[in-house]
Amino acid sequence: MPRSATTPFKNRILQGAALAMIGLALAGCSTTKDKMTTGSIPASTRSVESMDANEVRSATERAGQIYEKNPRDPVNGVYYATLLRSAGRDAQALAVMQQVAISNPNDRNVLAAYGKAQAAAGQLQQALDTIGRAQTPDRPDWKLVSAQGAILDQMGKPSEARARYRDALDIMPNEPSVLSNLGMSYVLTGDLRTAETYLRQAAGQPTADSRVRQNLALVVGLQGRFPEAEQIARRELSQQQADANVAYLRSMLSQQNSWQKLASKDGQQATNTN
After folding, report:
1. Which of 100, 143, 246, 265 has the greatest CB tally within 10 Å of its CB?
2. Which letter does DSSP use for residue 5 in this model?
3. Residue 105, class by beta-carbon neighbours within 10 Å (0-12 exposed, 13-18 middle, 19+ buried)?
4. CA gap 121, 115 in Å, rounded
Protein backbone atom coordinates (compact mmCIF):
# COMPACT_ATOMS: atom_id res chain seq x y z
CA MET A 1 0.00 0.00 0.00
CA PRO A 2 1.87 3.11 -1.14
CA ARG A 3 1.99 6.05 1.24
CA SER A 4 0.13 8.24 -1.25
CA ALA A 5 -2.95 6.01 -0.98
CA THR A 6 -3.47 6.75 2.73
CA THR A 7 -6.72 8.49 3.70
CA PRO A 8 -8.20 9.34 7.13
CA PHE A 9 -10.73 6.51 6.71
CA LYS A 10 -7.98 4.11 5.70
CA ASN A 11 -5.94 5.12 8.74
CA ARG A 12 -8.84 4.22 11.05
CA ILE A 13 -9.29 0.82 9.39
CA LEU A 14 -5.54 0.16 9.34
CA GLN A 15 -4.84 1.15 12.93
CA GLY A 16 -7.90 -0.57 14.37
CA ALA A 17 -7.45 -3.77 12.40
CA ALA A 18 -3.68 -4.03 12.73
CA LEU A 19 -3.65 -3.40 16.48
CA ALA A 20 -6.46 -5.90 16.93
CA MET A 21 -4.30 -8.38 15.04
CA ILE A 22 -1.33 -7.69 17.32
CA GLY A 23 -3.63 -8.17 20.30
CA LEU A 24 -4.75 -11.55 19.02
CA ALA A 25 -1.21 -12.57 18.21
CA LEU A 26 0.16 -11.84 21.68
CA ALA A 27 -2.89 -12.62 23.79
CA GLY A 28 -1.42 -15.86 25.14
CA CYS A 29 2.11 -14.68 25.86
CA SER A 30 1.49 -14.18 29.58
CA THR A 31 -0.21 -17.20 31.03
CA THR A 32 -2.89 -17.41 33.68
CA LYS A 33 -0.64 -19.74 35.66
CA ASP A 34 2.10 -17.10 35.74
CA LYS A 35 -0.32 -14.50 37.05
CA MET A 36 -1.78 -16.68 39.74
CA THR A 37 1.47 -18.13 41.11
CA THR A 38 3.39 -14.89 41.59
CA GLY A 39 0.84 -13.45 44.01
CA SER A 40 1.63 -9.96 42.70
CA ILE A 41 -1.75 -9.31 41.12
CA PRO A 42 -5.27 -10.31 42.13
CA ALA A 43 -5.97 -13.91 41.11
CA SER A 44 -8.38 -13.83 38.20
CA THR A 45 -9.17 -15.91 35.17
CA ARG A 46 -10.92 -12.94 33.55
CA SER A 47 -9.29 -11.54 30.44
CA VAL A 48 -8.96 -7.77 30.11
CA GLU A 49 -11.02 -7.98 26.90
CA SER A 50 -13.99 -9.40 28.84
CA MET A 51 -14.04 -6.57 31.41
CA ASP A 52 -16.43 -3.65 31.20
CA ALA A 53 -15.24 -0.06 31.66
CA ASN A 54 -15.80 -0.02 35.42
CA GLU A 55 -13.93 -3.28 35.89
CA VAL A 56 -11.03 -2.00 33.80
CA ARG A 57 -10.82 1.18 35.88
CA SER A 58 -10.86 -0.77 39.14
CA ALA A 59 -8.29 -3.30 37.94
CA THR A 60 -6.07 -0.52 36.56
CA GLU A 61 -6.09 1.28 39.91
CA ARG A 62 -5.10 -1.90 41.77
CA ALA A 63 -2.39 -2.83 39.27
CA GLY A 64 -1.09 0.75 39.33
CA GLN A 65 -0.71 0.65 43.12
CA ILE A 66 1.25 -2.60 42.84
CA TYR A 67 3.39 -1.11 40.08
CA GLU A 68 4.26 1.91 42.22
CA LYS A 69 5.50 -0.39 44.98
CA ASN A 70 7.44 -2.67 42.63
CA PRO A 71 7.93 -1.36 39.06
CA ARG A 72 10.27 -4.28 38.32
CA ASP A 73 7.58 -6.97 38.67
CA PRO A 74 7.27 -8.39 35.13
CA VAL A 75 3.87 -10.05 35.56
CA ASN A 76 2.07 -7.09 37.10
CA GLY A 77 3.88 -4.70 34.75
CA VAL A 78 2.59 -6.52 31.67
CA TYR A 79 -0.90 -6.75 33.17
CA TYR A 80 -0.91 -3.05 34.08
CA ALA A 81 0.23 -2.03 30.59
CA THR A 82 -2.48 -4.21 29.04
CA LEU A 83 -5.12 -2.49 31.16
CA LEU A 84 -3.76 0.94 30.26
CA ARG A 85 -3.89 0.12 26.55
CA SER A 86 -7.45 -1.15 26.86
CA ALA A 87 -8.36 2.29 28.24
CA GLY A 88 -6.60 4.06 25.37
CA ARG A 89 -3.68 5.23 27.54
CA ASP A 90 -1.04 4.07 25.06
CA ALA A 91 1.69 6.53 26.03
CA GLN A 92 1.45 5.54 29.70
CA ALA A 93 1.43 1.83 28.80
CA LEU A 94 4.60 2.35 26.77
CA ALA A 95 6.29 4.15 29.67
CA VAL A 96 5.39 1.30 32.03
CA MET A 97 6.76 -1.33 29.66
CA GLN A 98 9.96 0.63 29.09
CA GLN A 99 10.61 0.50 32.83
CA VAL A 100 9.69 -3.16 33.13
CA ALA A 101 11.86 -4.08 30.12
CA ILE A 102 14.89 -2.32 31.62
CA SER A 103 14.54 -4.49 34.71
CA ASN A 104 13.77 -7.70 32.77
CA PRO A 105 15.79 -7.46 29.52
CA ASN A 106 15.71 -11.19 28.76
CA ASP A 107 12.09 -11.98 29.68
CA ARG A 108 10.29 -13.05 26.50
CA ASN A 109 6.86 -12.14 27.83
CA VAL A 110 8.09 -8.69 28.81
CA LEU A 111 9.74 -8.10 25.43
CA ALA A 112 6.59 -9.24 23.64
CA ALA A 113 4.43 -6.89 25.70
CA TYR A 114 6.92 -4.07 25.22
CA GLY A 115 6.76 -4.58 21.45
CA LYS A 116 2.97 -4.55 21.64
CA ALA A 117 3.03 -1.26 23.56
CA GLN A 118 5.45 0.24 21.04
CA ALA A 119 3.17 -0.76 18.17
CA ALA A 120 0.14 0.74 19.91
CA ALA A 121 2.10 3.98 20.32
CA GLY A 122 3.01 4.02 16.62
CA GLN A 123 6.65 2.99 17.06
CA LEU A 124 6.40 0.25 14.47
CA GLN A 125 10.04 -0.41 13.54
CA GLN A 126 11.01 -0.37 17.20
CA ALA A 127 8.19 -2.82 17.93
CA LEU A 128 9.39 -5.14 15.18
CA ASP A 129 12.93 -5.05 16.58
CA THR A 130 11.77 -5.66 20.15
CA ILE A 131 9.62 -8.63 19.24
CA GLY A 132 12.51 -9.98 17.16
CA ARG A 133 14.69 -9.91 20.29
CA ALA A 134 12.03 -11.88 22.14
CA GLN A 135 12.17 -14.66 19.56
CA THR A 136 14.31 -17.77 19.98
CA PRO A 137 15.43 -19.08 16.57
CA ASP A 138 15.72 -22.72 17.66
CA ARG A 139 12.28 -22.64 19.34
CA PRO A 140 10.25 -19.99 17.51
CA ASP A 141 7.07 -18.81 19.22
CA TRP A 142 4.18 -18.70 16.76
CA LYS A 143 2.56 -15.84 18.70
CA LEU A 144 5.61 -13.66 18.13
CA VAL A 145 5.83 -14.64 14.46
CA SER A 146 2.18 -13.68 13.99
CA ALA A 147 2.74 -10.42 15.88
CA GLN A 148 5.58 -9.58 13.49
CA GLY A 149 3.14 -10.11 10.64
CA ALA A 150 0.60 -7.77 12.22
CA ILE A 151 3.21 -5.04 12.59
CA LEU A 152 4.38 -5.51 9.00
CA ASP A 153 0.76 -5.14 7.89
CA GLN A 154 0.51 -1.86 9.77
CA MET A 155 3.76 -0.76 8.10
CA GLY A 156 2.11 -1.32 4.71
CA LYS A 157 4.04 -4.50 3.82
CA PRO A 158 1.27 -7.06 3.19
CA SER A 159 3.38 -9.59 1.28
CA GLU A 160 5.94 -9.79 4.08
CA ALA A 161 3.18 -9.89 6.67
CA ARG A 162 1.39 -12.79 5.02
CA ALA A 163 4.63 -14.73 4.77
CA ARG A 164 5.04 -14.39 8.55
CA TYR A 165 1.46 -15.55 9.16
CA ARG A 166 2.10 -18.63 7.04
CA ASP A 167 5.30 -19.27 8.98
CA ALA A 168 3.24 -19.10 12.17
CA LEU A 169 0.71 -21.54 10.73
CA ASP A 170 3.53 -23.96 9.90
CA ILE A 171 4.36 -23.97 13.61
CA MET A 172 0.74 -23.99 14.82
CA PRO A 173 -1.58 -25.30 12.06
CA ASN A 174 -5.16 -23.97 12.02
CA GLU A 175 -4.51 -21.56 14.90
CA PRO A 176 -7.58 -19.27 14.77
CA SER A 177 -5.79 -16.07 15.82
CA VAL A 178 -3.24 -16.46 13.04
CA LEU A 179 -5.91 -17.30 10.47
CA SER A 180 -7.81 -14.24 11.65
CA ASN A 181 -4.73 -12.07 11.26
CA LEU A 182 -4.20 -13.44 7.77
CA GLY A 183 -7.80 -12.66 6.91
CA MET A 184 -7.54 -9.13 8.28
CA SER A 185 -4.41 -8.62 6.20
CA TYR A 186 -6.58 -9.02 3.12
CA VAL A 187 -9.10 -6.56 4.59
CA LEU A 188 -6.34 -3.96 4.68
CA THR A 189 -5.81 -4.33 0.93
CA GLY A 190 -9.51 -4.45 0.11
CA ASP A 191 -9.78 -8.15 -0.82
CA LEU A 192 -12.88 -8.90 1.23
CA ARG A 193 -13.71 -12.26 -0.36
CA THR A 194 -10.31 -13.74 0.46
CA ALA A 195 -10.52 -12.15 3.91
CA GLU A 196 -13.87 -13.82 4.57
CA THR A 197 -12.51 -17.22 3.52
CA TYR A 198 -9.72 -17.10 6.09
CA LEU A 199 -11.93 -15.58 8.79
CA ARG A 200 -14.58 -18.27 8.37
CA GLN A 201 -11.85 -20.89 8.67
CA ALA A 202 -10.63 -19.14 11.82
CA ALA A 203 -14.10 -18.82 13.36
CA GLY A 204 -14.76 -22.49 12.68
CA GLN A 205 -11.91 -23.66 14.91
CA PRO A 206 -12.94 -24.98 18.34
CA THR A 207 -10.56 -22.59 20.13
CA ALA A 208 -11.68 -19.43 18.31
CA ASP A 209 -12.65 -16.61 20.67
CA SER A 210 -15.10 -13.75 20.29
CA ARG A 211 -12.51 -11.39 18.78
CA VAL A 212 -12.11 -13.73 15.80
CA ARG A 213 -15.87 -13.78 15.29
CA GLN A 214 -16.06 -9.99 15.52
CA ASN A 215 -13.49 -9.71 12.74
CA LEU A 216 -15.64 -12.05 10.65
CA ALA A 217 -18.73 -9.96 11.44
CA LEU A 218 -16.94 -6.81 10.28
CA VAL A 219 -15.88 -8.36 6.97
CA VAL A 220 -19.34 -9.78 6.30
CA GLY A 221 -20.89 -6.40 7.10
CA LEU A 222 -18.44 -4.56 4.85
CA GLN A 223 -19.79 -6.65 1.99
CA GLY A 224 -23.30 -5.35 2.66
CA ARG A 225 -24.70 -8.39 4.50
CA PHE A 226 -25.48 -6.60 7.74
CA PRO A 227 -28.20 -8.94 9.14
CA GLU A 228 -25.74 -11.83 8.88
CA ALA A 229 -22.95 -9.67 10.37
CA GLU A 230 -25.16 -8.70 13.32
CA GLN A 231 -26.03 -12.34 13.96
CA ILE A 232 -22.32 -13.21 14.07
CA ALA A 233 -21.54 -10.20 16.30
CA ARG A 234 -24.14 -11.23 18.88
CA ARG A 235 -23.11 -14.86 19.09
CA GLU A 236 -22.01 -16.14 22.52
CA LEU A 237 -21.87 -12.67 24.09
CA SER A 238 -23.80 -10.96 26.84
CA GLN A 239 -26.49 -8.51 25.77
CA GLN A 240 -24.29 -5.55 26.77
CA GLN A 241 -21.26 -6.85 24.87
CA ALA A 242 -23.37 -7.76 21.84
CA ASP A 243 -25.00 -4.33 21.74
CA ALA A 244 -21.57 -2.67 21.95
CA ASN A 245 -20.24 -4.81 19.10
CA VAL A 246 -23.27 -4.12 16.93
CA ALA A 247 -22.95 -0.39 17.63
CA TYR A 248 -19.32 -0.57 16.51
CA LEU A 249 -20.31 -2.42 13.35
CA ARG A 250 -22.96 0.16 12.56
CA SER A 251 -20.41 2.94 13.07
CA MET A 252 -17.93 1.29 10.73
CA LEU A 253 -20.51 0.43 8.13
CA SER A 254 -22.01 3.92 8.13
CA GLN A 255 -18.95 4.76 6.04
CA GLN A 256 -19.72 2.02 3.55
CA ASN A 257 -19.31 4.27 0.52
CA SER A 258 -15.89 5.35 1.71
CA TRP A 259 -14.93 1.72 2.28
CA GLN A 260 -16.07 0.68 -1.18
CA LYS A 261 -13.96 3.40 -2.79
CA LEU A 262 -10.99 2.41 -0.63
CA ALA A 263 -11.39 -1.30 -1.32
CA SER A 264 -11.59 -0.69 -5.08
CA LYS A 265 -8.48 1.49 -5.03
CA ASP A 266 -6.52 -0.81 -2.78
CA GLY A 267 -7.56 -3.88 -4.75
CA GLN A 268 -6.05 -2.36 -7.87
CA GLN A 269 -2.88 -1.37 -6.01
CA ALA A 270 -2.52 -4.81 -4.44
CA THR A 271 -2.55 -6.34 -7.92
CA ASN A 272 0.30 -4.06 -8.91
CA THR A 273 2.40 -4.41 -5.75
CA ASN A 274 1.93 -8.01 -4.55
Report:
1. 100
2. G
3. exposed
4. 10
Could you give the dihedral angle defined by the CA atoms of residues 194, 215, 18 and 241, in that order, rounded to the nearest 10 degrees?
170
Residues lower than pLDDT 70 in the chain: 1-46, 236-237, 248-249, 252-274
Q: What secondary structure does DSSP assign to 154-208, as a single string?
A: HTT-HHHHHHHHHHHHHHSTT-HHHHHHHHHHHHHTT-HHHHHHHHHHHHTSTT-
Q: Where are the alpha helices (DSSP H) in 87-157?
A: 90-103, 108-120, 124-134, 142-154
- Distance between CA atoms of residues 16 and 120, nearest Å: 10
- Phi and psi angles of residue 46, each rounded to the nearest 5 degrees, phi first: -75, 135
- The 10s digit of each residue's pLDDT in 219-257 is 998 888 888 988 888 886 677 777 777 776 677 666 554
CA 73 to chain centre: 24
Residues in the chain: 274
